[in-house]
Amino acid sequence: MTDENHWRKWYELGQTPQIDQAIRQIYDDLGQAISAKGPTCWSSGKCCNFNAYGHLLYVTGLEIAWYCRQIPNSPESIDLKAACPFQVDGLCSTHTIRPLGCRVYFCQQGTSDWQQEIYEKFQQQLVDLHKQLDIPYAYMEWRHGLSEAFQNRPAATD
Q1: How many Cα atoms within 13 Å fall on the side-chain side of residue 53?
Q2: Quick check: is 157 in a domain?
Q3: Is 154 within 8 Å of 68 (Cβ atoms)?
Q4: What distance in Å separates the CA atoms of residue 136 and residue 127, rounded to the nearest whole number?
Q5: Which residue segment(s) compose the domain that 145 sits in?
Q6: Could you report the per-residue pLDDT of 67-126, keeping only the tens digit for each?
Q7: Residue 16 φ then ψ, to 5°
Q8: CA torsion sign, 81 to 49 to 154 to 64?
Q9: What is the three-class DSSP state of 78?
């Protein structure tokens, strides 16, 4: 379990313009790098079914807190064995703010050869952001992290 003080710090920082801009810039740059590779997203929602692909999505605590600041409501609970809780009718309901790992992962054949390299490059940018701003760093599985984040979510978001 992640220290609740870390969650408090991540939530606090996740709402600042500096962090918002930094995360959005990393995601925008990532989008350009992925576009250059030319993958196709069929909007099937298959990539969100982590269990079917033997895939675990890992994110930083700061990413989760930033993400949670963007959504109006959180699920009452997270089914850690199910697909992503933000998958609605088979599609991502938070596509524009999805984490780095979701942005990189494509279930299209022929994409796995470049995914890891791009992921590591942009994940390092998130690590560097933590170091530059002296932010506690933790790397965790998405659904477990969401569960912790919702338990530690501030009562009122600004």
Answers
A1: 17
A2: no
A3: no
A4: 10
A5: 4-151
A6: 998 887 666 666 667 778 888 888 888 889 999 998 988 777 777 789 899 999 999 999
A7: -80, 145
A8: positive
A9: coil
